[in-house]
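seq/struct pair 1
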Amino acid sequence: MTDPSPFRKEALAHQKLKWNGKALLISGLSPLWVAVLSLTFLLALLIIVICGNYTHRVNVSGEIVTQPHAINLYAPQQGFIAKIFVSIGTKVRKGQTLYLLDIDRATHTGYLSSRSAELIQLQLNKLESIIATTQEDKRRTLENLEQQLAFYQKNLKTSRNMAEQAHKGVDFMRSNMKDYTAYQHRGLITKDQTASQSYMYYQQEFSYQNLYSQAMQDELQITNLQSQLVTRAAELDNQIAQYEYQHESLQRQLTETEAKGTIIINAPAAGRVESLSVTLGQMVNAGDSLAQLSPGSESSYRLVLWLPNNSAPYVHSNELINIRYDAFPFEKFGQFSGRIESVSSIPASPQEMSTYSNKPTPQGNHNDSYYKVIVKPAQTRFTYQHRQLVLSTGMRAQATLFLERRPLYQWMLTPFYDIRKSVPQIIQTEAAECSLACLAMICAFYSLELDMLHLRQRYGISAHGATLTQLIAIANALKLKSRPLSLDLDELKELKTPCILHWDFNHFVVLIAIKRSQVIIHDPAFGRRVLGIEEVSQHFTGIALELWPNTDFVTETQQSRLKLRSLMKHVQGLKGFLLKIFCLSVVIEAINLLMPVGTQLVMDHVIIAEDHSLLAIICIGLIFFMLFRSFISMIRAWISIVMGSMIHVQWKAGLFDHMMKLPLAYFEKRKLGDIQSRFVSLDTIRSTFTTSIVGSIIDAIMSIGLLIMMLLYGSWLVWVVIGFTAIYAALRLATYHFYRHASEERIIKDARAGSHLMETLYGIGTIKALNLAPTRAQFWLNLTIDAINAGIRITKLDMLFGGINTLISTLDQITILWLGANRVIDGHITLGMFVAFNAYRGQFSERAANLVNVVLQLRMLSLHNERIADIALTES
């Protein structure tokens, strides 16, 4: 007998008869269909990427102006508007009466005409006094400048004569030095006699350099004084003319005030009245706006747009654009056409932009350059719902300009274009080796890697530099075919790049490319420069040299590098120090590996079992390990300090001893600050070796151990961590070129600023005697600001890389938290294992980032290696 159901029979019967719908199961697609659909999608995407085009565009803004600009009329003095003779839109002729200004009406302070006459007379007296004072200042200023000019011209003549005599003396003593050296080798004279003669030669050379520098400074001062004579005379004449014009205007107003008690405001030019700022009977003060007048018989409106600097090369005259006026929203009125009339060849000055109301506003402390674009609207009158709408001065507008049209795949690959083969930037070391630096850059473009030391040793040039003939001879020796050309500026785009240009009659640069109106060059003295055509015209002499590989050209690397092993083998006790540091580091890292294991034991065993005694044992053990690690770290730090000090002394002493054995010609071709900066590069190598290399070896070993521990604790989660680490490493390696260039630029600019300071202190007596202190100070300030800006660029890159590392680490942490928590929930790993894995992950990410940074530091050492090799590998 079955148990009776607890439910009612009627409800059960109804439930049996209830329709629950038909179950529909969607049949799965076959693998063939999935493959076909996927391939079709990929093929369509590939066709779109290859055949599709995209046009880069930029949104610009500006305002409507009249051509020529509108004239603003202002009240000359206080009064009442007695009569208005025109209205808005009235066309007027020159001299036509616009307003009648009554200055004879009484106020609570008295009659305006009498008070205005007194004020005008006071202004006339002040102007007459100012004009007389300005004329006297002009006479005194020009006399003072002419006296200074005569003084420096006399000094220049004397300095040139003395420099010529000193140069002859240097040549004579140089020949004597050779004889003295030969006599010493034969035993005819003693070493002290040779040293005495050498000291006299150095004194004569130093005297010649001072005299030559003084002559150059005199020439520069003469040029400045001649320029000041012209500019100061023009400035003072302009001031006097303005004061006289104001005097005549006030005299005329005084006459009108005394005669009629009213002032007539006339139109200064023929045109159209755009606006009236006052009404009949209104009282105005001096300087209040009265009206705005558009000159010309007909209104000629133009739209002024401000184009960013990086977009200027792609915008040209006669291009059609669409204009959107703020007063006529394009959602309702649509867009209006216009044609570009002109694009300025140089960026607009801040003074010019300040005259416009709708100009771009600077972002922060960064002021961009803008080019002025003049657009002629196709329509100046519009009809909307039977209403006539017209443009007016000051109306704001926007436009979208289309710049560069390229296939989609080119835009997608743009970040990788800079990685392709390009012309490197090589900075000259000696003052006269710009020709060798240019050849080194072009050889590197064709995969022949040559450093400056190698070129200098094989093709030494004099302190006066190389001629074009010598440059061709060296190029032929390097298996480069050459073609010298004489050409005009507009023919530069026809040259085969990269090529060499003759610059300022005493310099060579490498032409990289010509893009629209911009010329890109690599200057051995300054680095990469982007110049306008007008600026290039001031420097380019018309001589160019095209270079390309000959049939027997060989691509190889011929560089003289200072090996790190040669620096290390002479340091006493280095192996013992390195062994001690390595052993101590292994102990420290072993303790670091054990710390997460203690955390895992607490999470998985102590807390679950509520075992207080085991918890105390684990915590005491961890405290002991922490104290022991701190003690070992202090010992390792002390050993590192001792080792660093020993390397520092021995390296610098050896390099300085070798430098003192170098010939005098080495120092004559270099600046003092540049030589000093090379010792700073030695500090960088020493710091990298003593701190980074040993630490990187430990980090590498530790990373392997951490990977093994993460694999044991987290299984496949380790691949997620490796993936994020690989992304950071790829980003750093891809941007290495920019970081190296920025570092080299900072080193060179720091060296220039330091060299200028040292030379100034060295010749402070001559500088004060010639009153050149302000000039030297201004030049030093410019060099220092350049060095600071170069340092800021390095700091920005460091901030960028630090932010990227933080972002990647955060994404890594969140992803591991998500995936790891799911594995804990599913029971694949315990909570303690996950906590330990996360601790190992943090250590691994940190160690991997350190390894990437050390790899880049080691690559950066090649830059400092080259600078030290210039001293260490130069034959004494």
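seq/struct pair 2
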Amino acid sequence: MALNKNIAAIVSQPKLLVSALLIAASPAAVAQNQTESHSLTLEEVIVTAQKREQNSMDVPITIDTFSPQDIQATGALSIIDIHRYIPGLDVGEGQLTQAGISIRGISSANISTGGDPSVATFFDGSYIPRAATTVSFSDIQRIEVLKGPQGTLFGRNAAAGVINIVPNAPGEGDYGFVKLKVGNQSLRRVEGMANLTLSDNVFLRVNALSNERDGFINNTGTGGDPGAQDNSALRAALRWQLSDDSELLLSYDWDKIDQAAPHSIGIGPFALNTNPFSSTVANDVVNGGEARDMQAFGVKFNHEINGQWSMKALASYREFETRNRTDGDGTADISRYIDTDNIEDSDIFYSELQLNFSNDFVTVVSGLNYSQEDIYQAIPTTLSTDSLMSFQAGPAVLNLGGASLWDPNVWAAFSSQFTGGVPLDQSQASYTLVNQILRAAVDPNIPPHFFAPSTSGDLYNETMFNRGDFENYGIYIDADFELSEKFSLALGLRHSIDKKQFSWHAPLSEYAQANPQLGLHNLFIRQVDPTSASKRWSKTTGRVVANYRLTEDSLVFASYSTGYKSGGFDSLEVATADLPIDPEEVKNVELGFKGDLFNKRLRAQVSYYDIRVDGSQRTIFGQRPQDAGAIYYVINGETDNSGIEMVLDWLVTDTVKLGLSTLYAKNESQFEPYHNTSGELVANELVKQRFDFQDNYTATLDWSPQLSKGELNVHLDYIFTADRLRGTPDFLDSFAAVPGYGADRKRLNARISWTDSEQKYELALWGRNLTDSQFVSNIGGLGINTINTPVANIEQPRTFGLDISYNF
């Protein structure tokens, strides 16, 4: 208890923490008599980007890696935490179960389980879908981000690229670690790993993680404090060395999230505050929260047939249940209550058989894969009957009447307009009479029934239920020919087949069924009788890659590759039963350079890409004429993106290393007509975005001065992203008045650590967003127009704390 209090005292005082950081990094802290030598290096990173182990600098693909050292320096817990360090990668922040992923401007569609992402995510060699992609980083060997179409070797949904998460496998020997991370907002993260030798040829590795943190926004309502975290993970892996040529690996993963709902900060006139950075909100979501229960079983078999032939086989089964019930109005006003949820109960079986051949002239990777996925999804929208009345009335009527037609004073003034100045009572008959007058004189599209305030406080729910059965088959071959000592040529082909069966059912709301006298009909989710559809898509994709080695440590490459993402169905739009979402077909031209230069002091990775997407899928948050409020739906279009990505690492001295990652991007898209959040039809829209090198970069500094005892490491990184929001199709002029909206992102992060001479103990002080930069990342909400309840999301404020770790 005393230790916990002392730690809490340190991390709860920013001035004390900053002072400690400065003292630790000052020249006085560095011993004058240097007896131990530690040098920074440009480390060799082994990857499996081409389904075989290679040095990343020898792979003619644009690939970025995130190492255990990077995870430690940044405190990353999932892919959400790493995208700012990898140019061209974007991951939606704030929702672990609904994190959209984009590579080079090619993004995934909405929450619909009937569609697929444009970026494929793999964990331990197996494909993982949707909510599973944010698996916790515990005892991870590396994360690989492969850019551009990777369908030849990775197949399913790798149209824009691949994220490959590689956990550590059991090794020989007995060793492990224990790590503790504490910080402000009551952060408590504990992680441990143990690697055990069970016999001469059987090895076990077990790791576990627990992470808890309080919310960074105080909620005066009943929905919990936004930003709170609570997740745990466990993995056990067994390696059985059957012979010198064969090994069998078995694994089990468990991952659980049960935390506060994603924050919805009200910024409208009915919210507690109009400033999103007031640190206090009033959210009243009933049973709100974000949760995921996930487990997976895996098996791998590797066998060396002879000196040239080898085979690999793997299979995995993963199941997960999620929910994400979120406040949709940003207020604690019962007359404006809205919440949304995304419930999923799904499982996926993935398998792959690989046969490889290698000699001095050619390396061949070939294989088959099969996956089958069962999906259940429910998408509820819940309103209070008070807010339902406002949606029934619509903005035109509310503009005539006032904020709420159930307010006695508003109703008296409003109804007297139709009765010669005599206000009506608040009986059901009076509301029905006014409704008939309004339909005849103002708007015939007004729903044919208003209902009286006698039903106030009840909850009204509409839900879309979906089920899906998806199968994917693939066969591929990729051959890399060594045509000379310096020149090689790779050719690859894959044929993919996708079969999807999908169903919709949106019954009349239970509240309407229980109160037939009100004459209610579904507003947000149109009533749909059980409907099903099926569709088959297939495509042959490939790649051609020319690779020329300039020196032993540098190469250039040129490639042409194609990618494919199957079509699908929109969970909320039954019309896609007859008109499914079109597939995405991708063509990409790429030129690249990789090299360690100047006696391996400077590592440079530079790529130019030109990517075209036919049938590009885009999620719209808009209000069509048939919708009571803005909803998400999917449209198709064409996208042409090009750019230059650059990653530089410069070993200035043996103790100082600088890094820079940046990109230049030019994106153009044209989509079919759609309705925006204001209900306006947008047609023939050409969306153009351009980002210069100075608009998006991450700079890093690592310093490891020599000490008389132990090892000191100082890490700084600065992340800058210029405003991207004002040029997007979802931007409305009214957003510009919101503090922090459209501001440039500026993040300064630091970590200073000391490790003892035997590498057993580590102590570290760290800080994230040290300048406390404020930024609004999104504005929306189902009631943004009809009942004037816009909500915003913000990024996490300054955090700081202490790390302690022990290796054994």
